[in-house]
Amino acid sequence: MSYLFESFTGWKSYCEERKISLPESVIEYEIDQKNGSNDQIKAGLLQAYGVMKEAVKTGLEEEMTSRSGMINNGAKKVFNHPLSVLSPEFQKLISRALAAKEVNSCMGRVVAAPTAGASGILPGTLVTLQEIHGLSDEQIVEGLLVGAGIALIIEEKASLAGAVGGCQAETGSAAAMASGAIVYCLGGNTDQIFNAVAVTIQCMLGLICDPVAGLVEVPCVVRNASAAAIAFSSAQIALANVSAVIPVDECVEAMGEVGASMESRYKETAMGGLAATLTGQAISERVLIKDIEILPDEELDE
Ligand code: SF4
Q1: Gap between the Cα atoms of 126 and 181, Å rounded
Q2: For 252-284, how does the pLDDT look when each residue is reduced to its tens digit (9 = 90+)?
Q3: In angstroms, rounded to a whole number, what is the distance separating the alpha carbons of residues 232 and 169?
Q4: Residue 149 counted as domain residue
Q5: Does 2 fall in a domain?
Q6: Does residue 14 contact residue 4 with C-beta atoms inside 8 Å?
Q7: Distances in Å between the alpha carbon of 248 and those of 199, 201, 233, 260?
Q8: CA gap 49, 137 in Å, rounded
Q9: 171-212 per-position pLDDT tens digit
Q10: How close is the Cα of 163 to the center of ligand 1, in Å?
Q11: Is 250 domain-assigned?
Q12: What is the mean pLDDT of the segment spanning 13-21?
């Protein structure tokens, strides 16, 4: 039944014909691919959501300075800053996305959903959604199942990897998973969920992957915050029935086409964009020297 995740139109028809929900179809697929049971799959996702919540908490409470020094407790600074241009909820959303991603950059425990580089987006959006609407963990798990289905189709038609499709494939896909999950959790119908995905992809399209010094820190951490914001805005747009005009499957195809034509220096090679700036190069040299300095003698002799 892998054809189920070849397109959004196919996924919708499959569910309509069988009169099952989007999350139920993802569970069916999981059982088909990896065995297990409905309860086991949901328990696994509940555990994953627990790790996401823990990452948010850790990023907001513990020391978060990366070895390169580029990441330095940014989430806490945003969370606690008294002068705000955002609503309190929005400030929390941004802080939480930063927090979970900073944990990743500081080598902590995260859920790579869909990748470690984009690991702040689902935690930031879902924890904030849960708080605003008083949702249960079980409802969030249903949203995560919808997000998983969205990721399967993007992987099939485009890519989830920065090295293949640029940052649109990582943070863009995570934002698409999040916006679809949000609309589902708030009772949106399938068209609204898929429209949220289409709007998100339109907003993230073309984003290159250019990590400074090859580390998943700059611009990755701040992109998790902006992608979380785009997930929220896309969900709001879709819930209000504002059409993305270009159907979701065509948006994903465009994402694949843009990713395929992107030059390799913009695909995680750290040779273009921000990584290639004077400052980016200087940081890269400094990080390299630091790495050599801390290598044990025997490794240097080899
Ligand atoms: S810039 Fe590259 S490494 Fe960083 S989050 Fe985006 S895709 Fe991942």
Answers
A1: 8
A2: 999 999 999 999 999 999 999 999 999 999 999
A3: 18
A4: yes
A5: no
A6: yes
A7: 8, 8, 17, 18
A8: 8
A9: 999 999 999 999 999 999 999 999 999 999 999 999 999 999
A10: 8
A11: yes
A12: 97
In testing the pocket of ligand 1, which one of 119, 154, 209, 222 has its CB within 8 Å of the most ligand atoms? 209
The CATH number given to whatever domain includes residue 137 is 1.10.4100
**Within a 10 A sphere around the Cβ of 156, how many other Cβ atoms?**
16
Instruction: Scan for tokens 């309509």, then name that residue.
Output: 16
Ligand 1 atom nearest to CA at 118: 5
* Residue 1 falls inside a structural domain: no
Residue among 212, 222, 223 whose CB has most ligand 1 atoms within 8 A, to mutate: 223
> Looking at the 3D structure of the chain, how many domains does it have?
1
User: Average pLDDT, stretch 135-148?
Assistant: 98
The range of the structural domain enclosing residue 269 comes to: 8-301
| Ligand 1 geometric centre to CA of 206 (Å) | 13
Assess whether pLDDT exceeds 70 at residue 302: no
Q: Determine whether the shortest distance from the Cβ of 220 to ligand 1 is under 6 A.
A: yes
Q: What is the pTM of this model?
A: 0.95
Q: State whether the beta carbon of 117 lies less than 6 angstroms from ligand 1.
A: yes
